[in-house]
Every structure is written in C-alpha cells, then in structure tokens.
Amino acid sequence: MARLQMEVREAVPGDARSLIDLWSVCVAEGAALADPTQVVAAWEEPSEDEARQALTLVGDSTSRRLCVAVFGDRVVGAIHVDLSPATPLHLRTVVVVSELHVDPRFRRKGVACALMNVAVDWAEQVDSSLVYAWAPSDSRDAHRFLTRLGFGHYATVRAAKVRVLRARAVGRTGASRGTGRLIAVRRSLRRTRGELAAVPAGD
C-alpha cells in the first residue's frame, strides 16, 4: 500500500466539521492538564453552519489565512495566520500565528513544521521581518515547539469573561469618572485665571 502524503492547503467551508472536531480535541487535551483556577476556558464550540460562514469570510480575506494539513481526506492540523500592523504607529505589517493545532495522534510527524512554513512563506512575501505566535498557556508541547523554532518570549496574552470585567470594573469606573471631572474643573479654573490675568488693569 502506498504511503499517504501530507498536503497543506487553504481551508474551505467543507472542512468545518473536521476543524470543529480538531479544535475540540486539542482544547480538551489542554484543559485536562490546566489548573482551572488559573486558565480561562475561552473555547465555545460553534455550530457547523457558523463555522462554514466563518471559513468563507477567511477565504475571502486578503489579510487572514487558515490552512490545514491533510493526510488523504483527513484534516490533522490547522494554522491561522493574519497580517497586523507592527504597532498602531507603524504602516509595516507583521505576521501573527494565533492558532496552531495538530491532532494528538499525528504529532511528531512534521505536521506542525509544515504548517509553520505557511507563516514563514507569507512573511517573506510581505517583507515582514518578524513572525509572532501565541499558544495556550497550558500547552507545554506547543511552547516547547515554538522555542525550538526560535521564538522568544515577547508578551503574555490574557483573557477574561466580559461579565467578570464588568463586575470588577464598576467601582473603578466610578472613581475614574470622578477623577476625570476633577481634572476638567481644575483645567477650567486655570484657563479662567489665565484669561483674567491677561485683561488690562484699566478695563
């Protein structure tokens, strides 16, 4: 029997079910190893219809790519790559890898390296000198892989539920508004004093 060759291609809407399953397996694997008090569970499984629509939008975009690694007709890995300004003050862009998933049963077979080539190739095409990548904090394998490739520590990505932020920011928001009003009053008083000082004494 001929050995199946791995292919890396753009994801299409027809991959929706396979990609949902891949994400679910990888997220569940990480959750099993994570400390639930320290990690935010951000994955919410989409419907297949939603995933199809999302894949259509990615396929139409010129600044985002979602590629899959396939053995035969089986999706075994995926990578999401997008172009982003280096900072809000720059026009030049950098390549950002935000999702790199490999089916646990197909790891150590060169799948992740093949997928990462998508990011490298695109970076060279757009003349990006840097590739950024983030991985779940609880995924030791992912961080080891990125370190082996030459990625260094750059930033910490955190996530929080909106309801938690709203609940914890209420008191602070009130204080900040009060502080803002006080600053505005002080500025107004300074302007008034300056205008009075500029009026000639005989007026």
Describe the structure.
With 203 residues, the chain is of the alpha+beta class. 46% of the residues lie in helices and 19% in strands. The protein contains five helices and five strands, in the order βααβββαβαα. The protein has helices at residues 16-33, 48-60, 111-125, 140-149, 162-198; strands at residues 6-10, 64-71, 74-85, 93-102, 131-133. A five-stranded mixed sheet has the order 1-2-3-4-5, with helices on both faces. A hairpin with a 7-residue loop joins strand 3 (74-85) and strand 4 (93-102). The longest helix is centred in the last third of the chain and has 37 residues, at 162-198. It is elongated, with a radius of gyration of 25 Å. The model has no long low-confidence stretch (mean pLDDT 83).
What is the strand and helix layout of this fold?
Elements: E1 6-10, H1 16-33, H2 48-60, E2 64-71, E3 74-85, E4 93-102, H3 111-125, E5 131-133, H4 140-149, H5 162-198
Parallel strand pairs: 4-5
Antiparallel strand pairs: 1-2, 2-3, 3-4
Helix content: 40-55%
The computed structural class is: alpha+beta
Compressed to H and E, one letter per element, the order equals EHHEEEHEHH
Q: Could you give a short account of the major beta sheet?
A: 5 strands, mixed
Overall shape: it is elongated
Please report the total strand number as a whole number: 5
Radius of gyration: 25 Å
Mean pLDDT: 83
Spatial ordering of strands, largest sheet: 1-2-3-4-5
Unreliable spans are none
How large is the count of helical segments? Answer: 5
Distance between the ends: 103 Å
Question: Proportion of β residues?
Answer: 15-25%
